[in-house]
Amino acid sequence: MLGRVNHIAIAVPDLAAAAAIYRDTLGARVSQAQALPEHGVTVVFVELENTKVELLEPLGADSPIASFLAKNPSGGMHHICYEVEDILKARDQLRQDGARVLGDGQPKIGAHGKPVLFLHPKDFQGTLIELEQV
Ligand SMILES: CC[C@@H](C(=O)O)C(=O)SCCNC(=O)CCNC(=O)[C@H](O)C(C)(C)COP(=O)(O)OP(=O)(O)OC[C@H]1O[C@@H](n2cnc3c(N)ncnc32)[C@H](O)[C@@H]1OP(=O)(O)O
Ligand SMILES: [Co+2]
Questions:
Q1: Which residue from 25, 53, 102, 105 puts its CA 20 to 30 A from 123's CA?
Q2: Domains along the sequence of the chain with CATH
Q3: Which residues contact 128 (CB under 8 A, 6 or more apart)?
Q4: Residue nearest to atom 29 of ligand 1 (CA)
Q5: How far apart are the C-alpha atoms of 111 and 129, rounded to whole Å?
Q6: Is 51 exposed, middle or buried (0-12, 13-18, 19+ CB in 10 A)?
Q7: For residue 56, how far is its CA from the centre of ligand 1 (angstroms)?
Q8: How confident is the model at residue 45 (pLDDT cuts 50, 70, 90)?
Q9: Is ligand 1 within 6 A of the CB of residue 126?
Q10: Mean pLDDT over residues 30-46, rounded?
């Protein structure tokens, strides 16, 4: 089912400061910040040769990363995103196997303009998983 790792996401309390560390200290190429109100986050992508790191800052009162940051105030690794060819087929197979698909189970359009879904961290070794259809 799984293809490549699309990105690894890090929740941060201060996006501008985190982007500056990746750009100025670590010498990486970083994107402009992009506000995604439908996901409750603002994102910056760190573009590496073999994958991307997604820096996430909460946006709005109901951000899904607010409680994670309350528990990890300096930030921390939040999710890993794997590519899949057919997200609805993957969702249905995962549900059949007992995994919890988050939200209403309908894919949303993610930061790359492609459909995404999230899987409950308690069903995957304590790791929140994002699936992105490529
Ligand atoms: C930019 C768009 C898109 C993209 O294209 O890339 C994105 O990446 S958007 C990223 C943000 N969106 C999401 O994360 C959506 C899915 N997430 C959720 O629905 C929620 O965050 C959650 C996973 C259901 C957790 O919600 P929360 O309110 O934090 O619930 P709890 O505090 O009750 O947590 C339950 C339980 O799970 C543990 N937990 C929470 N988050 C994580 C995490 N990221 N990694 C590992 N474990 C996590 C939490 O600690 C609780 O455990 P216990 O304390 O043991 O009960
Ligand atoms: Co993501």
A1: 53
A2: 5-133 (3.10.180.10)
A3: 78, 79, 80, 118, 119, 120, 121
A4: 67
A5: 15
A6: middle
A7: 12
A8: very high
A9: yes
A10: 98
Q: Which residues touch 24 (CB under 8 Å, ≥6 apart)?
A: none
What's residue 66's pLDDT?
A: 98
DSSP string, 69-133: HHHSTT-EEEEEEEEES-HHHHHHHHHHTTPPBPTTS--EE-TTSSEEEEE-GGGTTT-EEEEEE
**Positive/negative CA dihedral, 24, 31, 50, 91:** positive
Q: Residue range 100-112: average pLDDT?
A: 97
> Which residue type occupies 17?
A
What number is the average pLDDT over the span 93-102?
98
Residues near ion ligand 2 (CB < 5 Å) are 9, 54, 81, 130
Identify whether the C-beta of residue 54 lies closer than 8 Å to the C-beta of residue 111.
yes
What does pLDDT average to over the chain?
Answer: 98
Q: What is the pTM of this model?
A: 0.98
Q: Is 130 assigned a catalytic role? A: yes
Q: How confident is the model at residue 25 (pLDDT cuts 50, 70, 90)?
A: very high
